[in-house]
Amino acid sequence: MSYRFQLQLQSILLTTFRSPYFPFSSFSLLNSTRESFCCGKDLEMKDVKLASELLVRDPLLLDNKIAAIRSAGPHKLQVIADFDATLTKFWINGTRGQSSHGLLKQGNPEYDEKRQQLFEHYHPLEFSPTIGLEEKTKLMEEWWGKTHGLLVEGGLTFESIRQSVADANIAFREGVGELFEYLEERDIPVLIFSAGLADIIEEVLRQKLHRSFKNVKIVSNRMVFDNDGHLVSFKGKVIHSLNKNEHALDMAAPLHEQLGDTDDQTADNASVKKRTNVLLLGDHLGDLGMSDGLNYETRISVGFLNHNIENSLSIYQEAFDVVLVNDAPMWGVIKLVSQMCSTES
């Protein structure tokens, strides 16, 4: 862990949220190290802002969940996270940030337009209240299959992915890199679930965070390229918006796979499934289903409510243990994880 990150993390841990929405006792000051660091006016102002962005409906329940996870130990904990608008920002410089799927340009306008036409046809069906789950699942498989077919037929290259990410309006929330580093040092796995494309997500991580993390897995649709970098097929079963959960874990591959790691994938997945305490991060109510397929003991869910706050806040507070609003950074999540992993009684 870098010295700069140690200082930054210590500063986070030494401060308390001053909001009545966040009164649970576990988030207390670490008095033993308080005198060693000065929070300063800027940090205090940041904490006041964080306090107004973080809401907890049932502090006692959350406090009990934190205690249960802490008692079981870090070796029983895993983090499950959505990617778009959860790990990434919803707004970037006043404009809507792009999704990992939406940023892709094939370098072939005809096929970009065909994919857009599929989106306009199937997207309303995805959220239609009159279509049953079984029929909707078939429609999503159909949509994803056609889209993947167009990417192959249209001659997508890995270089097009690199350039699309470089040109994209996409950025991580402040603190995501620090969160991954904190978890990596404690051997806590992070499963990023996405109905998008694993190769694009990995490229976003490479270009925006400038490093890989051995504890991070991408559970998403993975491409197969030939020796010339042209897309030829997709690996495994289709992961779409209605099945991105731990049933799809066998599709996951380590983020550092391309760096030559040869760990036993089956054994690794079995190890993850034995971690029965979960911190779940998502921005949609449907993301709560990402832990389906895992027989978890304790789950703490954090919901990022990025827009339409007035109309959606009560629903999110009923569904999630913690709600972060206004495109909040990850500092509150880091503080939450630090309490789960704390050795303090």
TrEMBL record:
Source organism superkingdom: Eukaryota
Entry keyword set: Hydrolase, Magnesium, Metal-binding, Nucleotide metabolism, Nucleotide-binding
TM segment ranges: none
UniProt-listed Pfam families: UMPH-1 (PF05822)
Catalytic activity: a ribonucleoside 5'-phosphate + H2O = a ribonucleoside + phosphate
GO cellular component, one term: cytoplasm
Record-linked InterPro entries: HAD-like_sf, HAD_sf, Pyrimidine_nucleotidase_eu
GO biological process: nucleotide metabolic process
Primary enzyme class: hydrolase
EC number: 3.1.3.5
GO MF assignments: 5'-nucleotidase activity; magnesium ion binding; nucleotide binding
Family assignment from sequence similarity: Belongs to the pyrimidine 5'-nucleotidase family.
Protein name: 5'-nucleotidase
Species: Arachis hypogaea
